[in-house]
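Minutes, project check-in

Agenda point 3 was the complex the collaborators sent over. CS summarized: two entities, 354 residues total, and the question is how they sit relative to each other. Sequences were read into the notes so everyone works from the same version.
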Amino acid sequence: MSSLSQLDQVKTTPWSGGRSPWSVEYGKIMMWFFLVSDAFTFSSLLVYYGAQRFSKFTWPDPDLVFQSVPGLAEGGYPLVFVGIMTFILIMSSVTMVLAVEAGHRRSKKEVTWWMVATIIGGFMFLGCQAAEWTHLFHEGFSWGKIPPMETLKHLFTGEVSEVSALQFSNLFFTITGFHGFHVFTGVVINIILLCMVVNGTFEKRGHYLMVEKVGLYWHFVDLVWVFVFTFFYLV
Amino acid sequence: MSELHTDHAHGEHAHGDHGGLGKKKIWQVFFILLALTVVEFIIALWAIPAGHMSQHIGNYVYIILTLFKAYYIIAYFMHLKYEKVGLILSVSIVFLFIVYFIVLMLIEGDFLHLHMPLV
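CS then shared the predicted structure for the full assembly.
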């Protein structure tokens, strides 16, 4: 009899149902799983880029392709501009995480200003990317388009290959474009979030969990950039 | 249902108080990320051009530093380090497939490197 009543007792272990076993809200778990699938997409693009590059006997030298600071210097400054872009994105990731931290304390004012800072960072990054793309377009790069041979000569350290240059061009615009699209949607979502914060939606709701979820997406965008930066500009 | 929700909200709050990232930690992680990036720049702009490091070794160093940066962003900024083990495993183990994919594509790339006409 006593053993039967033991069976009748409601179990309270994490996986016995009736509660979230990971103590994570549904939307946050779904955001994590979305990010995993998105990471797969970016991995596929970057792995394909790596495989292409690995299979070619020559490849455009990033130090020679990316050596301008649009609006300031035409050449001679490898990595400086992309360094600024990287700094902007890491900085906006920090302001986002500070917004999340302020959300934990339910300080509406602080969340608002950190979100404004994050959005400004996002716009600055997009502006830099637009400047860099414009510069490359002027050089003659685009999808399916490469500069004439005389220009290409200055972009390779070893032998010059039009096939490699074409692959580089296509993959550069596709991958940074896909990343830029993520930054753009991230900025749009951040703006919507800012409106909700200002309207007091989360005050009424009693928690700022939505800031955390949007924050996850924004950090993911930064994370992808870390990899894009390494494989396009450094390696 | 509402009882469940409030219970959960309470749990979340307690969790947030316990594991939430403080301002000090946030800036600490920021400076680690910045320092790793600066090291990458030093390698790219000084160590490799001056011949202190070969491009081949440099590439391995870049990838290792990148993985460190990724760890700091995911673990601290995305707060994954403080989540339950189940969630950490479910979003990280799947990347074994990516590792497998990388190995496959490197083998493929190596084959093409040897067998494609030089164009």
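Noted in discussion: Residues 1-18 of chain B have pLDDT under 50 and may be disordered.
Follow-up: revisit at the next meeting once the mutant set is ready.
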